[in-house]
Design brief:
This protein is α/β, with parallel strands linked by helices and about 325 residues long. The chain has two domains: about 160 residues, Response regulator (Rossmann fold, 3-Layer(aba) Sandwich), CATH 3.40.50.2300; about 130 residues, 3-Layer(aba) Sandwich (Rossmann fold), CATH 3.40.50.2300. It has eleven helices and 13 strands. The strands form two sheets. Strands 1, 2, 3, 4, 5, 6 and 12 form a seven-stranded mixed sheet that branches. It has a six-stranded mixed sheet with strand order 8-7-9-10-11-13, with helices on both faces. The longest helix is centred in the N-terminal third of the chain and has 21 residues. The radius of gyration is 22 Å and the shape is globular. It starts with a helix and ends with a helix.
Length: about 325
């Protein structure tokens, strides 16, 4: 018996026979432990920090419901990199995690990595940004066409249907941002008095400083711009980042994470298209647990979060909601 135990130990060490690789669950003194990897586009982006907070609360609250212990491993690039995300998927799946939730920076790069992970027995869900041609079992996040339409509608209403605008559009490769831009363009056809300035769609890494630099440079060079559409939250992730007096240039932005709300209160931004990023992380963990523990997946793989316009009329309410969500996360630690 001793020699067979030694052989079994050797096989596990070599990775030839690994309980965690085949079931995605680790035994912890008779109870099961499930490890879920969470990969955002950028580690410090408040969208993914909020989703991670929601995921941690879900791990604490839902573990007893599924009779497992749940651990979240948050591993996101410090600088946006689809290649690094793919390497993280490979590393997590080889380590035997049961599931992965990922916001996809470039679907063409990440779809093969997602499929490799699934081949190793790891369940994969996309949140926030999808890889629809991969074998992921579901997407949870905004309907990005509707997101873009709502951004355009909010800005058009602020401009009363007339004006010249510029668009801050993030990276070219992210499918969610491509679709938001598509939705904006479709909606703007309803407002012939609004035009996007020539070459007025600006792509950039999805981080604050590059976004702020573009806004400041372009507005200075083109003072006739009446409005800006920020498809994400990037320039609002830094304080005092917008180079105009409140109301002199109209602006709308996506996501409505806490750092953005002060810009609405000050009047520098007129409206946000709000996504409950905390709930996006919470629900992603719940969907993964359904798949891992119960072997259940949603009938429709596309699950959309509600979009909530946030402006002066409800910004205080939205701020209070965020305080409640983040307090819940703090108390769950």
């Amino acid at each position: 018996m001793k020699i067979w135990r030694l052989i079994g130990t050797a096989l596990v060490i070599l990775g030839i026979c690994s309980p965690s690789a085949t079931t995605g669950m680790l035994q912890q003194g008779g109870s099961k432990k499930i490890i879920i990897g969470m990969i955002g586009k950028i580690e410090a982006n408040p969208v993914f920090q909020a989703a991670y907070a929601g995921a941690r609360v879900a791990a604490r609250e839902l573990g007893p419901k599924y009779n497992v212990e749940v651990e979240i491993e948050y591993q996101s690039p410090r600088v946006q990199s689809a290649r690094e995300q793919a390497e993280t998927i490979d590393r997590l799946s080889r380590s035997g995690v049961a599931g992965i939730a990922i916001s996809v920076s470039d679907a063409s790069v990440l779809a093969p990595a997602i499929d490799r992970a699934i081949g190793l027995g790891t369940e994969v869900l996309c949140f926030d940004s999808d890889a629809p041609l991969s074998k992921r079992f579901a997407y949870y996040g905004p309907n990005d066409l509707d997101f873009g339409r709502q951004l355009a509608k909010e800005l058009a209403e602020e401009l009363k249907g007339k004006g010249t605008i510029a668009v801050l559009a993030g990276t070219r490769t992210a499918l969610n941002l491509q679709r938001r831009l598509q939705g904006m363009r479709e909606e703007l056809k309803q407002y012939p008095g609004i035009t996007i300035m020539p070459n007025g769609i600006f792509n950039h890494l999805e981080e604050a400083q590059s976004a702020v630099d573009i806004v400041k440079r372009v507005q200075k060079e083109n003072p006739g711009i009446n409005g800006w559409a920020f498809i994400g939250s990037w320039p609002l992730q830094m304080k005092n980042s917008l180079p105009w007096e409140p109301g002199t240039v109209k602006a709308v932005a996506g996501n409505a994470v806490p750092v953005e709300l002060a810009f609405v209160e000050s009047g520098h931004v007129q409206a946000l298209v709000g996504v409950n990023c905390f709930q996006m992380g919470y629900r992603s963990v719940e969907l993964l647990l359904d798949k891992i523990v119960k072997h259940q997946k949603p009938v429709d793989p596309l699950l959309y979060t509600p979009l909530t316009p946030v402006d002066q009329s409800n910004v205080k309410e939205w701020t209070l909601n965020w305080r409640k969500w983040l307090l819940k996360e703090a108390l769950s630690k």
